[in-house]
Amino acid sequence: MEEAREVRTTCPYCGVGCGVLAEVAADGTTTVRGDPEHPANFGRLCSKGAALGETLGLEGRLLRPEILGKPAGWDEALDLVAEKFSRAIAEHGPDSVAFYVSGQLLTEDYYVANKLMKGFIGSANIDTNSRLCMASSVAGHRRAFGEDIVPGVYEDFESADLIVLTGSNTAWCHPVLYQRMLAARRERGTKLVVIDPRRTATADECDLHLPLDPGTDVLLFNGLLARLVQAGKIDAAFIRDSTSGFDAATALAGADAPSVARVAKGCGLAAADVEAFYDLFAETERTVTVYSQGVNQSAHGTDKVNAIINCHLATGRIGKPGMGPFSVTGQPNAMGGREVGGLANQLAAHMDFADPSAIDRVGRFWNAPNIARRGGLKAVDMFQAVAEGRIKALWVMGTNPAVSMPDASRVRAALSKCDFVVVSDVTRTDTTRYADVLLPAAGWGEKDGTVTNSERLLSRQRPFVPPPGEARADWRIICDVAIRMGFGDAFAYQSPAEIFREHAALSAFENDGERLFDLGGLTGLSDTDYGAFAPRHWPALDNREQQTRLFADGRFPTPDGRARFVPVRQEATAFTVDADYPLALNTGRLRDQWHTMTRTGNVPRLMANAPEPAVDLHPADAAAHHLKDGDLAHLSTRFGFVRARVHLTEAQRRGQAFMPMHWSGHFAAKAAAGLVSSPITDPHSGQPELKHVPVRIERE
Ligand code: SF4
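A: This is the predicted complex of the input protein with iron/sulfur cluster.
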């Protein structure tokens, strides 16, 4: 009998990136606990992380390849994938194929997928489900800082005197971070302001809740910027020495939000609450503004991000302990995907297509025969191209777009029409039914590689059980296809460590400090060191201060070294409520569920709190629509309809409704939030407006 053993790994669910100790008993059963030495969580886990040991069963697992629903051998399946992709490229060009990938991929998986598509196939048609999560933050960071950088670290939550949580139900979506914030609040009296249309669990502990109207964040933060200027609460030296564009941004903010009364009216808030928030922000030097999907998932998400960053630049509150704008990501490796170029508009290693020398540099580094020269299709546009027949071969990796994409009916129709669909995943999902070829991928506990969390901390996911059946690592599957497509020399990797070293080397290649994303210090990592790799922030340089909090020196990775104020104006949501669709539907997460429930849905204790699809309504709205608690309701939008049980709550503002995003599987046909969500996207980020769509609600 085997000895019991303990393996250090990382939680696969959210962007907090908690360290997990997995103990495998002699009889093979696995229990998990928080890793007390991991700097993201110091031993804490939330309900989802604590239940990881209960998700390791074989329920729903894909165990062997399938072709058209019939079991097949790996060679047969991989040959077919390579042949179909090669033929589509030969007949219709490189842009006739696409990969839709996932923040569930490890950095090494992501790296080879991006390299295959952008360097060897010659298209940038690779996008990730992170497009639905934080693409607006990426675009906002690049506009302000010149590079996609989260400046701060989690320690800043513990040294701040004020934390502003905007568009973030942190208590449920990033629970361990919330626990860290509350611990600091108990210790040092940190003030919490929550800006969210709903009174979520996060607001339970706050000093001030601003239930603003959906989509009015830019107005609120423009008003704050105008107030900071009027009150002289700005850092003139920082603005002079380290920024550009202050005058234009403040002029537009002042015109947009000339008074507190105007802001209060435009945001649907009490003027006294707006005043209180502005006073707190103006008077509290150590302020962190945390933002998440409520900001990002908007037709104007990038402007919202820049409205927040503008206020931190004006006060010089960035790059210092307890200060800064802070985007928290939804997925364990959303950040790692951004680093390797998992988004269609990125190249690799934080380089992009706007710079011809970067295209040349990446092409030379990869010795790529066919480097892509322009950005590819972003997620919503990609599925539109599939629907129009422009994409002839699509590979979906580790994600479930038949449920999670907005306007999901159209996505399902597109998948069923596509000439050739490959799905590689851990379990059978709503999307796998559209696959011509189904490839079984290794899951958490079986995979080996790295992830990067919301604070730029690289951690290892390590295997502790073998993949079941014939499942294989994603990087291996991608390389096996690349080799069959004739790119063998560039994809002959023998281990994830080898891929990681190449990724690190690319980040440092001809990088004389022009890009902050630099893993140069890890280029020579031996296999043993990779195996023992302890969590570490990037840039992986020697100076600890640089490895943790960035921009401490007031220099930014823009051509002139200055951060940019971005002038932004409040714009309306893509659609407004009207007589036909009188309520505003918001979507989001439940405390105990993850994504489309493919893992957490198998754990009875995680299902117990919310066992069926529900829509939250204010009692007055329910009465106006002749609905009562527990009724089955029919919700329809311009894009489709769903059914859900009515849940009455005063936490919901009048005129608004809320539905969780998770429902899939046997609920997918009737309750997937994607069926009613809007596919209208932000023009800068391509991120869809998942937080607001007008809806009509009737008794079923
Ligand atoms: Fe996992 Fe996020 Fe919970 Fe940490 S907070 S245990 S990373 S789901």
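The two ends are 57 Å apart (CA to CA). The domain at 66-129+338-493 is CATH 3.40.50.740 (Rossmann fold).
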